[in-house]
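Weekly puzzle thread! Below is a chain. First person to post its structure in token form gets bragging rights.
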Amino acid sequence: MENQGKIRIQKIIADAGIASRRKAEELITAGAVTVNGKKAKLGDKADPYKDKINVAGRDIVIRKNSKKYYIMLHKPRGFITTMSDEGGRKCVAELIDDVPARLFPVGRLDRESEGLLLMTNDGEFANLISHPSTHFPKTYRVTVRPRMTDDQLTTLTTGVVIEGRMSMPAAVHVVKSEQDRTVLEIVLEEGRNRQIRKMCEAIGLEVARLKRIAVGPVRLGMLQPGKYRELTPDEMRAIRAYSAKLKSGKPSK
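Winning reply:
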């Protein structure tokens, strides 16, 4: 059979640690991927060990039995969530440069946000968490100014129109309310660009601090800013079980 031993190109790119499967699909659509010198199309397949696959001018290599890494990084403020930057800005890649593999971020945190960022070279694992269809929840500790009103809390919980589209309902819990600020815990099941900042801005609140403290069942805990560690086997099992529960349609707890 012609396609025997061949798999979808976006999976090959993800398995090579170049990008998540979703990003790989964007690269293919943009014409940045070639197979044996010919531009690839979505749906095309290739043999990762025989075909020459090039992504944005760079040949990729798949090594059999290469180790998969699953990293939890505490991203500090001031770092961008990318592996390189032509403008010389600080990148999260600098914080994991002693990991002997090419990793990519699972999702994003903007430059002024901090907290839990998962990184891996396993495209399938990244897809469990970052694909829009999964609605994998992320938990944030957010400080807003000025003090939040009850009406603003209700609006934030039920959904806010940002960029012409209503956000999904969010779980919002008031941790602390002071005269000039409110500290919130917000759980989102979607990951639009700078979503919490835009939601708060839309209802007249300024985000003074934003920190991701959990992704699904995995929590940042006491990991210090700029430090990383590998996920434990228990955490890996918890993520896979959580993903399976979401796919089955059962409510998460």
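Puzzle host: Confirmed. Bonus trivia for everyone else. The chain is about 20% helix and 30% strand.
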